[in-house]
Amino acid sequence: MTTRPILIHPDPRLKKVADPVAEISAEMRALAEDMLETMYDAPGIGLAAPQIGVLKRLIVMDCVKEEGASPAPMALFNPEITWSSDETSVYEEGCLSIPEQYAEVTRPAEVRVRWQDLDGKLREEQFDGLWATCVQHEIDHLNGKLFIDYLKPLKRQMITRRMQKLKRERARA
């Protein structure tokens, strides 16, 4: 397993729509492993392939945060939301591609998602709470959308400017 570098906004690859995964090959399974390693190392609760520069429809997530609880890593190939609740919830979201920036985002409180697992089997599950927020946030990445796209333009521009400054500082280091 390899920890991969995470792209920082603004990066044009983060705004592109990812391609479907045609076949869940050994290479794709290895990519999912690398993504989980990268996510845990960051540390984060979700990561989409475009965030490491791979424009494929693959997300990983693990929203277990309780001390001492067993991790519950998930790899979702070609995930799609098949249903979402009318009820909404508000979470303060962050993103590994937008480090140390957080904002409240309103999303459906529950979603049903269909995807292929590591064995290529079709799965469907209903998510709520943090899992629902996370899966929607990561699927947005596959569609070239970031959580700051839900914010008012001024707040979005402020965060983008901070990220440009961060990228300049990291380039000098």
What would you report as the Rg, rounded to the nearest angstrom? 16 Å
Instruction: Report the biggest beta sheet as strand number plus sense, adding barrel if it closes.
Output: 5 strands, antiparallel
Structural class: alpha+beta
Number of helices: 3
Binned, the helix content reads: 25-40%
CATH topology: Peptide Deformylase
pLDDT < 50 runs, ≥5 residues: none
CATH architecture heading: Alpha-Beta Complex
Task: Please list the strands of the largest sheet in the order they lie side by side.
Answer: 1-2-3-6-7
Beta fraction: 25-35%
Question: What's the CATH superfamily, by name?
Answer: Peptide deformylase
- Count of discrete structural domains: 1
End-to-end Cα distance, whole Å, is 26 Å
Order of H and E elements: HEEEEEEEHH
Mean pLDDT: 96
Number of strands: 7
Class, according to the CATH hierarchy? Alpha Beta
- What is the 3D form? globular
